[in-house]
C-alpha cells in the first residue's frame, strides 16, 4: 500500500468531482424530456433516484475542497482577512455565472430567475468557508445538527397561512411560502423554486458534511483508520437518513434533512472508496476521465448549459439524433439516454483540450 499524504492534491477528489459533473450533464441533457429511464430522472416529489445524488455530491465536494484549500493557505501564513475577501469574490463570480446561465440566450431580464444551481453553490460556499475559518470540527457538527433539526422542526411545526403546519406538498409548504415572500421575479415552478432560500439552509449542512470529511483527512492517524472512520460515518448517516425519512421524507426539492443525511452518507463512502482505489492503491488510470472533467468543473458545467443552443436550436443535432434513432426502431428512452451520453462526450472535448494545455480556469 502506497504512502498517503493528505497535504498533496487528492486525485480521488478531482475524479469524484469530474464524475459528478459528467453525470450532471447526462441527467440534464436527455434527447427528450418525455422519454426518460427512471434512474435518469429526479424523483417527482418524495423519494430519491441516482439523479438526485448528483447535486448534493457536488456540494459535499465543495465542502471537502474548502477545508483542504483553507488549511494549505493558513499553513502558508495567509491572512484571514485576505482569505475572506477572496471567498466573497469567488462566491459573487459563481453566483454571477448562475445568473448568466438563467438569462442565456435571450437575456430577458423581466423573466429572470434569481435562484439556481450555481447560485446555491455560491451561497453554500460563502457560508461554509466562513464557518471553516472560525470553528473546528466539533463546532461544525453542532452547526450542521442545528441546521438540520431546526429546518425539520420549522417545516413541520410553523403553520403556513391558509394551509396549516406540517404540509409538505408542492407549493404548499413553508419553504414555498417563504420563497414567495422574499424571492423577486420568476420562480422555476411558478409558486415555488427547488433552489429557494429556505431550502438552502439544509444545503449548507450538506456542505458542512463535506468539510467534516476534509477535517477527518487532516487528522493525525493512519490512512487505514481514516478510511474506516469515513466508511463508518457514511454508513451511520445512511441509517439516520432512512430513519428520518419515516417522519421527514427524502425530498431533493425541499432538500429535506433526511435527504441530507442519506446523500451525505453515500458521499462519505464514495469518497473513501475513491481514495482507497486511486490515492492508496495507485490506480490512477481509472481516474483520468474524471480528473479531466473535474479540473475545470464549473467552466464545463457552464459550457454544457450553453452548448445546447448551438447543437439543438441552431444546428438541430439533438433532434436529428433522437428522431433518427427512433425512426429506425430504437426505443425512445434508449435513444434519449444515448443522446445524453453523446452530449456528455461532446462536452468532454473542451475539457480535454483545457487539461492538455494545462489551462485551469479558477472561478
UniProtKB/TrEMBL annotation:
What InterPro entries does the annotation carry? HGSNAT_cat (IPR012429)
Protein keywords: Membrane, Transmembrane, Transmembrane helix
Residue span, Heparan-alpha-glucosaminide N-acetyltransferase catalytic domain: 9-220
What domain of life is recorded for the organism?
Bacteria
Record flagged with keyword Membrane: yes
Transmembrane segments annotated in the record for this chain: 53-75, 87-105, 117-137, 144-168, 196-217, 229-247, 259-278, 290-314, 334-355
Keyword Transmembrane helix, does the record have it?
Answer: yes
Q: How is this protein named in the record?
A: Heparan-alpha-glucosaminide N-acetyltransferase domain-containing protein
Q: Which organism is it from?
A: Lutimonas vermicola
In the record, what lineage is assigned to the organism producing the protein? Bacteria, Pseudomonadati, Bacteroidota, Flavobacteriia, Flavobacteriales
Amino acid at each position: 500500500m502506497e504512502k498517503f499524504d493528505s497535504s498533496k492534491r487528492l486525485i480521488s477528489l478531482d475524479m469524484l468531482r469530474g464524475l459528478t459533473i459528467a453525470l450532471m450533464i447526462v441527467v440534464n441533457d436527455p434527447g427528450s424530456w418525455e422519454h426518460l429511464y427512471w434512474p435518469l430522472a429526479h424523483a417527482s416529489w418524495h423519494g430519491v433516484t441516482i439523479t438526485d445524488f448528483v447535486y448534493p455530491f457536488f456540494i459535499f465536494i465543495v465542502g471537502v475542497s474548502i477545508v483542504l484549500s483553507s488549511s494549505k493557505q493558513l499553513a502558508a501564513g495567509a491572512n484571514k482577512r485576505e482569505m475572506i475577501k477572496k471567498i466573497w469574490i469567488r462566491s459573487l463570480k459563481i453566483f454571477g455565472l448562475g445568473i448568466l446561465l438563467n438569462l442565456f440566450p435571450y437575456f430577458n431580464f423581466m423573466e429572470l430567475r434569481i435562484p439556481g444551481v450555481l447560485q446555491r453553490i455560491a451561497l453554500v460556499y460563502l457560508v461554509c468557508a466562513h464557518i471553516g475559518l472560525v470553528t473546528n470540527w466539533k463546532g461544525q457538527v453542532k452547526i450542521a445538527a442545528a441546521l438540520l433539526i431546526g429546518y425539520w422542526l420549522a417545516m413541520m411545526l410553523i403553520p403556513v397561512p391558509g394551509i396549516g403546519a406540517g404540509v409538505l406538498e408542492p407549493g404548499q409548504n413553508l419553504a414555498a411560502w417563504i420563497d414567495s415572500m422574499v424571492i423577486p421575479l420568476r420562480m422555476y415552478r411558478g409558486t415555488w423554486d427547488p433552489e429557494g432560500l429556505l431550502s438552502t439552509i439544509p444545503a449548507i449542512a450538506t456542505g458542512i458534511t463535506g468539510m467534516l470529511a476534509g477535517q477527518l483527512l487532516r487528522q493525525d492517524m493512519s490512512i487505514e483508520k481514516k478510511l474506516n472512520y469515513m466508511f463508518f460515518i457514511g454508513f451511520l448517516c445512511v441509517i439516520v437518513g432512512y430513519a428520518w425519512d419515516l417522519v421527514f421524507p427524502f425530498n431533493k426539492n425541499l432538500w429535506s434533512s433526511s435527504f441530507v443525511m442519506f446523500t451525505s452518507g453515500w458521499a462519505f463512502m464514495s469518497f473513501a472508496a475513491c481514495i482507497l482505489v486511486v490515492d492508496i492503491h495507485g490506480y490512477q488510470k481509472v481516474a483520468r476521465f474524471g480528473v479531466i472533467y473535474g479540473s475545470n468543473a464549473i467552466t464545463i458545467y457552464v459550457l454544457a448549459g450553453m452548448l445546447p443552443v448551438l447543437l439543438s436550436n441552431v444546428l438541430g443535432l439533438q433532434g436529428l439524433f433522437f428522431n433518427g434513432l427512433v425512426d429506425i426502431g430504437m426505443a425512445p428512452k434508449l435513444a434519449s439516454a444515448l443522446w445524453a451520453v453523446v452530449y456528455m462526450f461532446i462536452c468532454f472535448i473542451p475539457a480535454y483540450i483545457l487539461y492538455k494545455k494545462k489551462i485551469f480556469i479558477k472561478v
